[in-house]
Amino acid sequence: MNQEDELTRTVETSVIGAILIDEKTLPNISEKLVINDFYHEDLKEVYGVILDLSGNGKPIDFLTVLNEFQNERRNEIKKLLLFCADSTPSVSNATYYAEIVHKSAMSRKIKEQLMSILPDLTSENILEKSENLLENISSVIMPIQAKKMKTLEKSAQTLFDFYIGKTSSVENRAETGFKKIDSILQGMSGGNLIVLAARPKVGKTAFALSVAENVAKSGKKVVFFSQEMLSCELCERILSKNSGVSMTKLINKNLSQDEIKLLEKTLDILKSRELIINDSSSISVNDIRTSCKMLKNLGLIVVDYLQLMHSGSGKCENRNQEIGKISRDLKRLATDLNVPILCLSQLNRTSGENQKPSPSEIRDSGEVEQNCNKLMLMWCVSKNEGSKTIGLDVALNRRGGTGTVLLNFCGDRMKFTELETKYKENKESSGQYSDWRQKYYSKS
Q: Domain spanning 3-113: which CATH class is it, in words?
């Protein structure tokens, strides 16, 4: 092994060691490194195992990585992993080590490209070879940017293939599972920030949980960030909705044998749904990025709710600026991960309880409706015996229409059902809202 190869192995070893010591370093490392950046095959294999574990939402440490290897190789891998962990100078420098590995990989690939054109380079083909060389080097130096640079021809062909059924999808798209709402929304696509705003106690968490569960039913992973309720409380709602056993009985543990059997059947059904709940309080956008960056087949991120988040920095002069920054960062995150983000938000109590709200009532910031792709407003239209009629207005939609759907909400079973009844707007009470909508769309 020459001196350069020895240095490369030392740095690659330190990268693996840092991840084994602290798996929180992985999202930052994975932004710098792809698996083929590793030069040494044994370390490349370990990094591949780490990425697979993370993509499946499993913990990463010495034992979990070792467990992925077959018995006959475990002694060899055990020595390698121990050496990696012992040889890491500083976990805090893990991102810098990753940059060194990536630059070394770029250097090797550029040398390979240069050497590949030399044997058959002539005065006749020098221009063609040079152009190919520049294109190949560009793809090595800027892999992420190169992937995003697409010609009109390529983009149009991709869409056409989708239209004629040659490809199944061109985007990471999720549906709410409510037909009328989906016909208006035209899907929640990767890169979309969808805001669901309501006053307290209307049922926005219950509705968002229903949407999350419907996306999970489709076979995609969903991560639900709940800052107000614990995971067991959310699970209680899901069990009630799916089993038909009332929330009152679940909370009081007043269950008959038949109801216990219903819950057992429901649990068997729910096992196949990959709905991950994070009930950490006061999260930041960076916390969400760290938790979701490596997850494979991620179909939706839900955040409950915007006003409970913090920006992660003290640079904002006031709360309005901070909420505006958080909404911008969530939009960027949706784009970076190519995942739709459904973010719940509180509304101010500036209008009557049963009055259709306006986007201007979003609490703490006027920027939220500017930063989101779609905005849905919920309110209680009327209270009935044992249920409520809920209005859901798609107030802003940059890719689709707008309109209002009425739903029945049975709070004791956490169940929403779309109603056939059409919402009739009260022109006097909605004049300010109509003016806002007309003004907004005249600018768009």
A: mainly alpha
150-190 pLDDT, tens per residue?
667 777 777 777 677 777 666 788 888 899 999 998 888 88
Does pTM top 0.85 for this prediction?
no
The full DSSP string for 167-189 is SS-SS-EE--S-HHHHHHH--EE
Query: Is 173-443 a domain of CATH 3.40.140.20?
Result: no
Element (H, E) at 92: none
Distance CA 372, CA 323 (A): 13
Domain with CATH 3.40.50.300 in the chain: 173-443
Helices (H), 225-354: 231-243, 247-252, 257-270, 285-292, 319-337
pLDDT tens string 247-293: 888 888 888 888 888 888 888 888 888 888 888 877 888 888 878 87
Place of tokens 């195992």: 49
Q: Where in the chain is the domain with CATH 1.10.860.10?
A: 3-113
